[in-house]
């Protein structure tokens, strides 16, 4: 089985240098034949004895996080930050024969997730933050396991959506998991937008969508999302423990509420660092970035020019893609707006995908994730001719994750500019990711009206941190919002 933890082991740079010196000294003293045994063992022992155990939520120089209920009675936002140990494709194939297999060489994956709950006083969002990451690394699902899970949805949830999905399960598997060939989920696009371009690293290895995210990794994500939603969020794992006369109404009441879920999975492209928990702090790191999306929580990346780029697409009733998936009448849905003018699915839900929300599951309100994969970070390992093929140009500065309490007030570029301009003004030493996440939330508290939603912000530092231009593209817009709030326009 794979495992997960909320901390990393960080080895100080001076200890690494001392270990390297001891290895070189051992090599000179004992000759090449003895370096691999005595030398490497000594260096490893020195490093392990002085490694620092650092909790990921207490690592302000690399990861910042802040949340506030703002003007709501409860804060239903939640988040989790963990280091996962994920198997390689080979390990997963071997694990089908030996379920207890766990290699010490399983790669380290930094998982950061943000959840925006609604109803049930945050029951689902808190459950996701507390338990979901464990399910992602648990077990080794197969294609048949996935089909069996869809069959459980068909029998336990019911409805036309799940029946149709089960009937076309093989086509669904080929399209969204095996071949990964949907436009929304391609890693790198060709000029005709029909296929991925090949990128070569400096060693001549091909980097494409398969090398960043395999079919088995995609299967693991799909399976864990749907399984956790059915069993934990919707309560179908406890059916045997429920009273015989337990009604559907009581079930809906006990397992009320729902939540969005947006996650990033960051791992090192360099095989030499794949087992190193602290890979993401290296200034020359090149990373595989996998992003999953359920709902409307936003994930934004800041490129080397300080430009904001969305990493996800929102699951709203007005989305043509979601309308097609659910066979919705778009014109009818546009007419069904709430008192705030927002379009609602089933005249109730702001999102067309979520965890929980049992009452809408039968109609297709599912937790099927959109999955995106990117290559980001330091481009020294790529030839200069290959860098232009990257979606964001390489050398990105940071990733920012926010709930709609933030994104409903600030645009993507305003969020990025608020962060970069604060660093430019306060300096890198003071304005670390933790300081900046708190500043974003404080800004929302300052400008939000009396109906303002919960606000949560998470910032992950990338290798090019602080190297953006000293320009604030949206300063006037943010100042106008602050001035408007100070004049009493927050009704």
UniProtKB/TrEMBL annotation:
GO terms for cellular component: mitochondrial intermembrane space; mitochondrial matrix. InterPro entries: PP2C, PPM-type-like_dom_sf, PPM-type_phosphatase-like_dom. The keyword Ubl conjugation does not apply. Pfam families: PP2C. PROSITE patterns: PPM_2 (PS51746). Keywords: Pyruvate. Residues 62-462 form the PPM-type phosphatase domain. Gene3D superfamilies: PPM-type phosphatase domain (3.60.40.10). GO terms for biological process: autophagy of mitochondrion; macroautophagy; regulation of mitophagy. GO terms for molecular function: [pyruvate dehydrogenase (acetyl-transferring)]-phosphatase activity. This is [Pyruvate dehydrogenase [acetyl-transferring]]-phosphatase 2, mitochondrial.
């Amino acid at each position: 089985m794979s495992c997960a933890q909320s901390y990393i082991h960080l080895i100080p740079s001076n200890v690494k240098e001392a270990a390297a010196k001891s290895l070189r000294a051992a090599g000179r003293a004992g000759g090449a034949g003895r370096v691999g045994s005595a030398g490497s063992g000594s260096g490893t022992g020195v490093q392990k004895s002085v490694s620092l155990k650092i909790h990921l939520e207490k690592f302000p120089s690399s990861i910042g996080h802040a949340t506030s209920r703002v003007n709501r009675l409860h804060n239903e936002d939640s988040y989790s930050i963990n280091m996962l140990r994920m198997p390689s494709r080979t390990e997963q194939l071997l694990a089908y024969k030996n379920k207890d297999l766990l290699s010490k060489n399983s790669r380290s994956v930094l998982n950061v997730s943000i959840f925006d709950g609604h109803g049930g006083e945050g029951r689902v969002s808190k459950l996701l933050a507390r338990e979901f990451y464990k399910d992602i690394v648990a077990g080794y699902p197969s294609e048949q396991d996935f089909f069996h899970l869809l069959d459980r949805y068909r029998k336990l949830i019911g409805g036309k959506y799940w029946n149709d999905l089960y009937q076309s399960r093989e086509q669904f598997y080929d399209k969204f998991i095996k071949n990964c060939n949907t436009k929304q989920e391609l890693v790198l696009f060709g000029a005709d937008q029909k296929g991925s371009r090949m990128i070569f690293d400096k060693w001549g290895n091909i980097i494409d969508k398969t090398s960043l995210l395999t079919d088995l990794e995609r299967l693991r994500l799909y399976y864990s999302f749907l399984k956790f939603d059915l069993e934990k969020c919707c309560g179908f794992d406890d059916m045997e423990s429920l009273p015989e006369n337990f009604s559907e109404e009581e079930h809906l009441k006990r397992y009320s509420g729902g939540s969005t879920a947006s996650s990033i999975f960051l791992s090192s492209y360099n095989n030499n660092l794949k087992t190193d928990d602290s890979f993401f702090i290296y200034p020359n790191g090149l990373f595989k970035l996998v992003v999953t999306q359920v709902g409307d929580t936003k994930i934004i990346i800041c490129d080397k020019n300080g430009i904001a780029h969305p990493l996800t697409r929102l699951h709203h009733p007005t989305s043509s893609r979601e309308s097609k998936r659910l066979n919705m009448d778009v014109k009818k849905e546009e007419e069904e707006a709430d008192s705030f003018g927002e379009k609602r699915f089933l005249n109730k839900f702001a999102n067309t995908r979520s965890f929980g929300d049992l009452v809408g599951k039968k109609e297709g309100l599912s937790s099927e994730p959109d999955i995106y994969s990117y290559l980001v970070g330091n481009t020294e390992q790529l030839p200069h001719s290959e860098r232009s093929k990257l979606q964001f140009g390489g050398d990105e500065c940071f990733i920012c994750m926010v709930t709609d309490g933030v994104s409903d007030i600030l645009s993507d570029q305003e969020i990025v500019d608020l962060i970069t301009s604060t660093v430019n003004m306060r300096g890198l030493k003071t304005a670390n990711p933790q300081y900046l996440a708190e500043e974003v939330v404080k800004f929302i508290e300052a400008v939000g009206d009396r109906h303002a939603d919960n606000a949560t912000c998470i910032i992950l530092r990338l290798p090019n941190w602080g190297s953006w231009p000293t320009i604030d593209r949206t300063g006037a817009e943010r100042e106008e919002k602050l001035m408007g709030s100070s004049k009493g326009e927050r009704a």
